[in-house]
Amino acid sequence: MIVGSGIIWLTLLVLPGSFFDHGQSVCLSQLLLHQACPACGITRACMHALHLNWQQAWHYNRLVVIVLPLLAWLWGQEVWVNMQRLGWVPPPRSEE
Question: How many domains does the chain have?
Answer without folding.
Answer: 1
